Predict the 3D structure of the following.
Amino acid sequence: MAKKKVRTCGCVFRAVFRSCLERYHSIAASDRSGGVRFTGISASRPNEEYVADFILVARRALRGERPELMRVFDLHMLGSHDWKICTRKIGISRGNFFHDVYSVQEVVGEAFKTTVPYRHAGQVPAGRHHGEH
Ligand SMILES: [Zn+2]
């Protein structure tokens, strides 16, 4: 049987990333309101670990990439700033910004898929990817 190396499609990694980011923001939002932090150690610790792991794994994955990607991650993904603010602060075009968003989602999503943030997010079924493209 011939071995065929199939590269996982980028949309799988982007779905993983979005799922993890969603969980990150829902934890961060409840943390700010005090809803999670003060309900007791057993409830808050896994969430705090999740937030820490999310940022740690993402930064580690982006360290080897172009510096713009780290800035897109910080400003757009973590900071929730829109493209107008991000393009001005980073000094890139709108087209490059959206291209970088894709790159961040794929690079970080791939890193998440094999590590903690994804296992804990548990929102994207493994076989979710449909079709060939
Ligand atoms: Zn795909």
